[in-house]
TrEMBL record:
PANTHER family given in the database record: TRANSCRIPTIONAL REGULATOR, MARR FAMILY (PTHR33204), TRANSCRIPTIONAL REGULATORY PROTEIN (PTHR33204:SF18)
Listed InterPro entries: ArsR-like_HTH, HTH_ArsR_DNA-bd_dom, HTH_HxlR, WH-like_DNA-bd_sf, WH_DNA-bd_sf
Molecular function GO labels: DNA binding; DNA-binding transcription factor activity
Name of protein: Transcriptional regulator, HxlR family
SUPFAM superfamilies: Winged helix' DNA-binding domain
Organism: Caldivirga maquilingensis (strain ATCC 700844 / DSM 13496 / JCM 10307 / IC-167)
Amino acid sequence: MQQECPVTKAWRVLGKPWRLVIVDRLSNGPRTFNQLLFSMPGISTRTLSKALKELKSAGIVTMYCSGKNHYYSLTEMGKELIPIVNAIKAWSIKWLSGKTLNINIR
Protein backbone atom coordinates (compact mmCIF):
# COMPACT_ATOMS: atom_id res chain seq x y z
CA MET A 1 0.00 0.00 0.00
CA GLN A 2 1.31 3.44 -0.93
CA GLN A 3 1.76 5.90 1.94
CA GLU A 4 -0.08 9.19 1.82
CA CYS A 5 2.01 12.20 0.83
CA PRO A 6 2.97 14.15 4.00
CA VAL A 7 1.85 17.44 2.45
CA THR A 8 -1.52 15.96 1.55
CA LYS A 9 -1.90 14.56 5.04
CA ALA A 10 -1.10 17.93 6.66
CA TRP A 11 -3.40 19.73 4.23
CA ARG A 12 -6.31 17.50 5.26
CA VAL A 13 -5.95 18.87 8.80
CA LEU A 14 -4.79 22.44 8.15
CA GLY A 15 -6.06 23.25 4.69
CA LYS A 16 -9.64 23.87 5.64
CA PRO A 17 -10.74 27.50 5.94
CA TRP A 18 -9.68 29.39 9.06
CA ARG A 19 -7.45 26.64 10.54
CA LEU A 20 -4.15 28.49 10.14
CA VAL A 21 -5.80 31.77 11.16
CA ILE A 22 -6.84 30.13 14.44
CA VAL A 23 -3.28 28.89 14.98
CA ASP A 24 -2.06 32.45 14.32
CA ARG A 25 -4.52 33.96 16.81
CA LEU A 26 -3.51 31.41 19.47
CA SER A 27 0.21 31.88 18.84
CA ASN A 28 0.32 34.72 21.39
CA GLY A 29 -1.39 32.73 24.12
CA PRO A 30 -4.74 31.32 25.21
CA ARG A 31 -7.97 32.93 24.04
CA THR A 32 -11.63 32.46 24.87
CA PHE A 33 -14.10 31.54 22.13
CA ASN A 34 -15.37 35.13 21.97
CA GLN A 35 -11.85 36.56 21.80
CA LEU A 36 -11.15 34.30 18.84
CA LEU A 37 -14.47 35.13 17.23
CA PHE A 38 -13.94 38.89 17.44
CA SER A 39 -10.35 38.62 16.19
CA MET A 40 -11.48 36.94 12.97
CA PRO A 41 -14.04 39.13 11.16
CA GLY A 42 -16.11 37.09 8.75
CA ILE A 43 -16.09 33.78 10.60
CA SER A 44 -19.38 32.50 11.97
CA THR A 45 -19.77 31.03 15.45
CA ARG A 46 -20.69 27.68 13.89
CA THR A 47 -17.59 27.64 11.67
CA LEU A 48 -15.30 28.60 14.56
CA SER A 49 -16.83 25.97 16.80
CA LYS A 50 -16.39 23.27 14.15
CA ALA A 51 -12.82 24.35 13.38
CA LEU A 52 -11.83 24.32 17.07
CA LYS A 53 -13.39 20.88 17.50
CA GLU A 54 -11.43 19.54 14.52
CA LEU A 55 -8.17 21.14 15.70
CA LYS A 56 -8.73 19.66 19.17
CA SER A 57 -9.36 16.25 17.64
CA ALA A 58 -6.13 16.55 15.63
CA GLY A 59 -4.16 17.41 18.79
CA ILE A 60 -3.28 20.95 17.69
CA VAL A 61 -5.50 22.86 20.12
CA THR A 62 -6.55 22.14 23.67
CA MET A 63 -9.26 23.69 25.84
CA TYR A 64 -9.19 24.29 29.57
CA CYS A 65 -11.40 26.00 32.11
CA SER A 66 -10.40 28.83 34.39
CA GLY A 67 -13.25 30.09 36.54
CA LYS A 68 -16.26 30.56 34.32
CA ASN A 69 -14.20 30.88 31.14
CA HIS A 70 -13.11 28.23 28.67
CA TYR A 71 -9.76 28.95 27.04
CA TYR A 72 -8.26 27.54 23.89
CA SER A 73 -4.52 27.22 23.50
CA LEU A 74 -2.00 25.51 21.26
CA THR A 75 -0.57 22.15 22.22
CA GLU A 76 3.12 21.41 21.65
CA MET A 77 2.14 20.09 18.21
CA GLY A 78 0.26 23.32 17.53
CA LYS A 79 3.17 25.49 18.68
CA GLU A 80 5.38 23.84 16.07
CA LEU A 81 3.11 25.40 13.43
CA ILE A 82 3.90 28.98 14.53
CA PRO A 83 7.06 29.35 12.36
CA ILE A 84 5.12 27.95 9.40
CA VAL A 85 2.28 30.43 9.91
CA ASN A 86 4.82 33.25 10.28
CA ALA A 87 6.47 32.18 7.00
CA ILE A 88 3.07 32.21 5.26
CA LYS A 89 2.40 35.71 6.66
CA ALA A 90 5.78 36.94 5.37
CA TRP A 91 5.08 35.40 1.95
CA SER A 92 1.65 37.04 1.86
CA ILE A 93 3.07 40.44 2.75
CA LYS A 94 5.75 40.11 0.07
CA TRP A 95 3.60 38.78 -2.76
CA LEU A 96 -0.04 39.58 -2.03
CA SER A 97 0.03 43.04 -0.43
CA GLY A 98 -2.14 45.47 -2.35
CA LYS A 99 -3.75 42.76 -4.47
CA THR A 100 -7.47 42.13 -4.50
CA LEU A 101 -8.22 38.43 -4.34
CA ASN A 102 -11.55 37.05 -5.47
CA ILE A 103 -11.31 33.97 -3.28
CA ASN A 104 -14.01 33.06 -0.76
CA ILE A 105 -12.52 31.35 2.34
CA ARG A 106 -15.81 30.62 4.07
